[in-house]
Amino acid sequence: MLNVEQLHQYYGGSHILRGLTFQARVGEVTCLLGRNGVGKTTLLRCLMGLLPAREGQVSWEGRVITGHKPHQRVQAGIAYVPQGREIFPRLSVEENLLMGLSRFPARQARAVPAFIYELFPVLEQMKHRRGGDLSGGQQQQLAIGRALASQPRLLILDEPTEGIQPSVIKEIGGVIKQLAARGDMAIVLVEQFYDFAAELADQYLVMARGEIVSQGRGVDMERDGVRGLVAI
Ligand SMILES: Nc1ncnc2c1ncn2[C@@H]1O[C@H](COP(=O)(O)OP(=O)(O)OP(=O)(O)O)[C@@H](O)[C@H]1O
Ligand SMILES: [Mg+2]
Fold first, then answer.
1. Which ligand approaches the C-alpha of residue 33 most closely?
2. Residue ranges around ligand 1 (CB below 6 Å)
3. Whose Cα sits closest to atom 24 in ligand 1?
4. Ligand nearest to the CA of 230
5. Which atom of ligand 1 is nearest to the CA of 43?
6. DSSP notation for the chain
7. Ligand 2 ion: residues within 5 Å (CB)
8. Ligand at shortest distance from the CA of 16
9. How far apart are the CA of 109 and the centre of ligand 2, in A?
10. What's residue 230's pLDDT?
11. pLDDT per position as a tens digit, 84-117
């Protein structure tokens, strides 16, 4: 389980995260919703150790990781798919995927595991192409594939549907469902596309002004009026 307690973060003098507390459980998709600029990405960067938390505590599988560096979190089974994908445009698809294996011994890190290509067949077809030559949707699949290559037990995704065509959104949703159904991974999904979030969420959290203002079970999102809370 991921356990976040009273997390605070600032950019200079602006107080961005204001005492966030929540849990994300293994075998569940936790969807974090919220309008632009409320601090969703800032939270994920704190979870990944890319920004040191100013105050509060983050623990994963019972261990406090608040002060850990990103590579230590990768070793602890945490993987992050950043907003905007951030693949390596000049490296081939295969090389991008191999980057995801850096937490393993060199011997194991030489070949892309077959399950990645099974989840995203398009990546196998395109494995010799440069990452930068892929469409936006394919790059998003590549970024998710790279994160999965590390065989995470906590997968963190930041707006994977942003700027992507509907057919690929559907494929990505299908993959997230398959991963959740395995039951051995906690998935934290930041999303502004309400229908996508509602279809996948076991648990939802709504953020506004650096705080969680509403939370509940995914099946109750409509009843709880979450659509209105996040409508742009
Ligand atoms: N590096 C930075 N320095 C200063 N302020 C920042 C920085 N990054 C983000 N901010 C500000 O912090 C606030 C939260 O930003 P953040 O990117 O976490 O929001 P978000 O919820 O992810 O938004 P979006 O939905 O647009 O991705 C915003 O007001 C943003 O302008
Ligand atoms: Mg963001």
1. 1
2. 11, 16, 34, 36-42, 83
3. 36
4. 1
5. 18
6. -EEEEEEEEEETTEEEEEEEEEEE-TT-EEEEE--TTSSHHHHHHHHHTSS--SEEEEEETTEE-TT--HHHHHHTTEEEE-TT----TTSBHHHHHHHTTTTS-TTGGGS--HHHHHH-HHHHHTTTSBGGGS-HHHHHHHHHHHHHHT--SEEEEE-TTTT--HHHHHHHHHHHHHHHHHSS-EEEEE-S-HHHHHHH-SEEEEEETTEEEEEEEGGGTTTTTHHHHH--
7. 40-41, 83
8. 1
9. 31
10. 87
11. 989 999 999 999 999 999 888 877 778 899 999 9
38 alpha carbon – ligand 1 mean position (Å): 7
At 111-157, the pLDDT tens digits run 899 999 999 999 999 999 999 999 999 999 999 999 999 999 999 99
Domains located in the chain, CATH noted: 2-222 (3.40.50.300)
Q: What pTM, to 2 d.p., does this model score?
A: 0.95
Percentage of residues in the chain with pLDDT exceeding 70?
Answer: 100
